[in-house]
Amino acid sequence: MKDEKTYFFDRPENVRRLLRVFYGACIVLAALDFVIHRHVYHPWENLWLFYPIYGFVGCVLLVLVAKWMRTFLMRDESYYEDLERSRTDALGDSRDA
Asked: Looking at the structure, do residues 13 and 56 belong to the same domain, yes or no?
């Protein structure tokens, strides 16, 4: 087991370091939203933190729509096995014998 290669994210301190960088970038970008003047097209774009909130709501809606679509798009766990079995039965293939 000593020959097993360790990757960057296998070490917990690297994961913590990366999360700190992401959180720091989010804080810096949120702080810049208060400082930078934007040329807006719609009045609601003047709200503080409009774009982060807009992005978060968009992601939440994507997840909810995907969960809803899963109810009618999802197949049984044995879908492909059943499909293959029905094809071999229809062709009269005797590979299973």
From this structure: no
